[in-house]
């Protein structure tokens, strides 16, 4: 019926693809999970319901952006970072407040998580720090929205060159491992880390050793288990 058609539309639109370059959202994230994406390792499929929730978040963010436009403070929106070899990304907006430029990144979440949020999430700070770096802007704002209560919280983030250097070095090291076909080690607090809870590769990760592993050996192992790697 209609529900099945809509579900299939979402599943087809979000079909997992091989990753060829880093996105800003990869900064500071589990290197092993990113490695698996680059190698197109079979992963758990996301439910159509979750994919629709992402769409809902995008819709709310668009409404907020419209409000910022109405306030006349948007200098540009959906701004790509300057092209360079390592990473690509697109900031939600660059605005002017009190004659100062800010990079703004919107994040939406359910009200339960929103209520507990006392400080910006580490992964969001990593992302906006890279935007500040590539746009050469000193300050950013992380704007969080509750999807079901429409409440807002914002946090000002100042550029931290030391943090950015660590993130860029992490991506450069991961790039070398991807090119050398070395699967990075698991996160030190696997499987408790929040990334492991939501990871689409958690089963495949559990079937590998915790330290670095040669991709060629592991690929043979998962192919024997019946998972075809492209
Ligand atoms: S389960 Fe955890 S450690 Fe393993 S790939 Fe996923 S995020 Fe990384």
From TrEMBL:
Query: What domain of life does the native source organism fall in?
Result: Bacteria
Query: What Pfam families does the record point to?
Result: PDDEXK_1
Residue ranges of the PD-(D/E)XK endonuclease-like domain? 83-205
List the Gene3D superfamilies.
3.90.320.10
- This chain belongs to the protein called PD-(D/E)XK endonuclease-like domain-containing protein
């Amino acid at each position: 019926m209609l529900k099945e058609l809509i579900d299939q539309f979402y599943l087809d639109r979000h079909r997992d693809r091989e990753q060829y370059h880093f996105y800003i959202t990869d900064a500071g994230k589990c290197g092993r999970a990113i490695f698996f994406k680059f190698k197109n390792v079979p992963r758990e499929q996301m439910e159509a319901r979750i994919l629709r929730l992402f769409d809902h978040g995008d819709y709310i963010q668009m409404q907020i952006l419209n409000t910022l436009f109405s306030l006349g403070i948007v200098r540009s929106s959906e701004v790509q970072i300057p092209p360079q070899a390592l990473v690509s990304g697109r900031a939600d907006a660059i605005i002017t407040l009190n004659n100062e430029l800010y990079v703004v990144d919107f994040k939406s979440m359910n009200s339960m998580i929103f209520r507990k949020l006392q400080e910006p999430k580490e992964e969001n700070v990593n992302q906006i720090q890279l935007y500040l770096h590539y746009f050469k802007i000193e300050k950013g704002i992380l704007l969080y929205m509750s999807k079901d209560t429409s409440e807002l919280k914002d946090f000002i983030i100042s550029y931290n060159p030391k943090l950015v250097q660590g993130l860029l070095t992490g991506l450069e090291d991961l790039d070398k491992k991807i090119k050398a076909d070395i699967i990075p080690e698991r996160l030190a607090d696997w499987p408790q880390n929040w990334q492991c809870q939501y990871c689409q590769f958690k089963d495949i990760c559990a079937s590998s050793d915790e330290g670095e592993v040669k991709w060629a050996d592991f690929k043979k192992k998962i192919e024997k288990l019946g998972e075809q790697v492209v």
